[in-house]
Design goal:
Two copies of one chain form a homodimer. With 334 residues, chain A is an alpha/beta fold. Chain A folds into three domains: 4-47, Orthogonal Bundle (434 Repressor (Amino-terminal Domain)); 61-157 and 293-319, Rossmann fold; 159-291, Response regulator (Rossmann fold, 3-Layer(aba) Sandwich). Chain A is built from 14 helices and twelve strands. In chain A, strands 2-1-3-4-5-11 form a six-stranded parallel sheet, with helices on both faces. In chain A, strand 1 (61-66), helix 5 and strand 2 form a beta-alpha-beta unit. In chain A, helix 5 runs parallel beside helix 14 (293-309). At the A-B interface, helix 4, helix 5, strand 2 and helix 6 of A face helix 4, helix 5, strand 2 and helix 6 of B. Chain A binds a DNA duplex (30 and 30 nucleotides) through residues 1, 3-5, 13-17, 19-20, 23, 25-29, 32, 47-48, 50-57, 113. Chains A, B: GO terms for molecular function: DNA-binding transcription factor activity; transcription cis-regulatory region binding. Chains A, B: Residues 2-56 form the HTH lacI-type domain. Chains A, B: Keywords: DNA-binding, Transcription, Transcription regulation. Chains A, B: This is LacI family transcriptional regulator.
DNA sequence: TAATGTCATCGAAGCGCTTCGACGCAACAG
DNA sequence: CTGTTGCGTCGAAGCGCTTCGATGACATTA
């Protein structure tokens, strides 16, 4: 292994000069810096991460805790992760991946000084990780919105506003009976707040506009989706529009509607709440509220970075939803 | 931060005694060990990862390079990752996540001594990462099979055998015209070997058994899947069985078959090659060759671990496929 | 000419841990 | 009673880096 000593010797300078030349934390004359850089290149020198972390109190790694279960929406998670990893590189950071259930992991990586900051996905209302996070010296960023975010940064799509946006779009088209096909029971029971916030926004907005609004949970399986559609028609026979907030179920819901003889958007309009690629990848392109998963991931990193060197206080950011009209919504049938 | 010195002081022993008490690398008397452990508990001591890495040449972290693109099969990747992360914990290791395109990452984390070993997913025949990997001091495990694995451990499902298994199952049921609906063009062009191995196994086995075998690539989109089905009927009008090795397309292929008036398995049999949960989660449970993604991930970790402390030489392991008969295959129509 | 200031560089301490060699002590053999 | 062995513990070196204070060279000013 080539060390900073080797570089110093090769460049004919002291170790500290090499360090300063590379970090730029003190002025080094151009010729000296050139010699150092040359030596670095020729020897293929890489600073030892552990030694650096020990001396500088910085690891250049951040922890990402992601739900690797199968029941949640794999595609969205992947995009979050991609956003985080990609943006982290812009800040010269790598990403240590923890699983959601690894509660001890928070302590292990934070107290063990393995990371500079932590990002947690899929936060629940009373998430058991929050107390752990609060007592670490590293800043934490939550993707999601717990009941009490005290001391922790949060970022998420504004799901209440998303629901409103979807309802308004449909209401403006004349729809008066709208159903929300949402997350599985389990997700709601876990008190994952995005699901709750969606339902809440939907309920209040339909109420506000004097519209019949029905919420049905929907399991993420073929059967679950078919069942959800059936329940909608059962409980709201004259429904003319659906808001679907469940990616896995989405294609099945569409197929089932067609099977039941409903043409989209002639007989029934559909607004999806999902990432853009899912919305346009269906049999027909769907009007949708975009879940900008990658953006959220990268914003999370930005927020972590801000707290690392700016030591700003924690803040909460809710991203404004954007609805894109495509082929799946139209005026309510007469 | 509480350090090993604090623990030593609290326990009334020397620093080295604490270290040995915790690592077990030298005998420490029971009472002393108890005092150390008590101090550790009371102070909430966690060794500093960087310091430990510096002194011991072990980081207890392994790198996992995963394709976070969207075009590949997200679900399978997630399962690999889960397998790796979960198994890594059994060996007291954490996982650093790199993206596939981050070629420089190999050097950064390996030469920078951030990890003890590397695991690379989605390896191509002439993968550009291989030379980089070979010159690192850390062992590497590939998920996939490059043309020349020299010096690197490999693990994957035996896709040639999988194809054979699928073909044999169908041939034994009397099918004489079989099509393989496979990976997208791009994946093949990238020379991702699982796709090639699948095609090769399919081609040789159909030939060996004197069966008409047709391979059609299939893009991972609704339109792509529909198109693939059309091409199959175009080029092999009397086809009675399909092998589908493309998870994303799978549901669309099934739907399209039905739309074309083909009932499964009465008119046409289908063998999927996909993870079990995908096979059973379709509208009807599918006969399938399981892709044991999680197992492969955990085997990869096992292989890495073996090379870490046993310093066994590199080896290649191809997992034997298992075909499970479900509702989508039956005798060839007369 | 001496005092002052600037700039580039150096030396050394120290980050927190592991590990090697040494040491004291008790048990045992000769 | 001395010599040997083995167990449990300690001290110190060293892992590779960052950073602080000091220093020397040189230019600037009084």
């Amino acid at each position: 292994m080539t060390t900073i000593d080797d570089v110093a010797r090769a460049a004919g300078v002291s170790v500290s000069t090499v360090s300063y030349a590379l970090s730029g934390k003190r002025p080094i004359s151009a010729p000296t810096r050139a010699r150092v850089e040359r030596a670095v290149r020729e020897l293929g020198y890489r600073p030892h991460a552990g030694a650096r972390a020990l001396a500088s109190q910085r690891t250049n790694v951040l922890a990402l805790m992601a739900p690797l279960r199968v029941d949640v929406n794999v595609g969205v998670i992947m995009q979050f992760v991609t956003g985080v990893v990609t943006r982290a590189r812009d800040f010269e950071h790598d990403v240590l991946l923890l699983t959601q259930d690894d509660l001890a992991g928070v302590d292990r990586v934070a107290a063990g000084s393995m990371v500079d900051a932590l990002i947690m996905m899929d936060v629940e209302a009373e998430d058991p990780r929050l107390p752990l996070l609060r007592r670490q010296k590293q800043p934490a960023v939550l993707i999601g919105l717990p009941r009490d975010p005290q001391g922790l940064s949060c970022v998420d799509l504004d799901f209440e506003a998303s629901a409103r946006l979807a309802v308004d779009h449909l209401a403006d088209l004349g729809h008066r009976q709208i159903a929300l096909v949402g997350s599985p029971h389990l997700v709601l029971e876990r008190r994952t707040t995005y699901a709750q916030r969606m339902v809440h926004g939907f309920t209040t907005e339909t109420a506000r506009r004097g519209i019949a609004g029905l919420f049905v949970p929907c399991e993420s399986s073929h059967a679950g989706a078919v069942d959800a559609v059936d329940r909608v028609f059962d409980q709201l026979p004259d429904v003319t529009a659906l808001v679907v907030h469940n990616e896995v179920a989405l294609p099945v819901v569409l197929a089932t509607l067609r099977e039941r003889g409903k043409e989209i958007p002639r007989d029934i309009s559909v607004v999806a709440v999902c990432p853009e690629d899912v919305a346009v990848g269906q049999q027909q392109p769907l009007t949708a509220v975009d879940i900008p998963a990658m953006t959220i991931g990268s914003v999370a990193v930005d927020m972590a970075a801000a707290r690392l060197d700016g030591d700003q206080p924690a803040e909460t950011r809710l991203l404004s939803p954007v609805l894109t009209v495509r082929a799946s919504t139209g005026p309510a049938p007469a």
